[in-house]
Specification:
Length: about 160
């Protein structure tokens, strides 16, 4: 009888550790997904701000260089932001990110390269040249989104 109670106690403790580990994993998933979403929101902010400058909606053309540097800095963080594979909850990332990790890294590197070029060009202040490079940055974003982001109709935001 004492052995039976001891085994039940051990089983109970083991179950608690497993549950604690699972809830910890969910917390890690939520933190990783939150980080990724914030990173992408900031990318959207910088790209949108550059768009407003290029359209003449924001009169401070000198801000273009800072937004371009922001995009370039964020682009360097994307691959690391997705290294941790997460459960498919409240994310627009397709599972293909991790199934095709090398391809994902190449796409992230493409954005990093184009964003770095944008930062160099924007430092010169030539809005036409900035606009041309922004198209390349947008193409790099789209290339990754086409392969690794769920379509809008499948978004968690719907």
């Amino acid at each position: 009888m004492k052995i039976h109670h001891s085994l039940l106690g051990i089983a109970f403790l083991a179950a608690l550790f497993v549950l604690a580990d699972v809830s910890g994993a969910r917390a890690d998933d939520a933190a990783a997904i939150g980080y990724r979403q914030k990173l992408m929101q900031v990318n959207g902010f910088h790209a949108g701000s550059l768009g407003a400058i290029l359209k003449g909606e924001w009169p401070y053309k000198e801000d273009a260089a800072a937004h371009a540097r922001g995009l370039a800095a964020n682009a360097m963080l994307i691959a690391n932001a997705f290294k941790m594979q997460t459960a498919d909850v409240k994310t627009d990332a397709k599972p293909d990110v991790w199934k095709e990790w090398t391809k994902f890294e190449e796409k992230a590197k493409g954005l990093e390269t184009e964003s770095a070029k944008l930062a160099e060009i924007a430092a010169g202040g030539d809005l036409k040249a900035i606009g041309g490079q922004m198209q390349k940055v947008g193409g790099a974003c789209k290339a990754c989104h086409d392969d690794f982001r769920k379509p809008k109709e499948q978004s968690y935001k719907n």
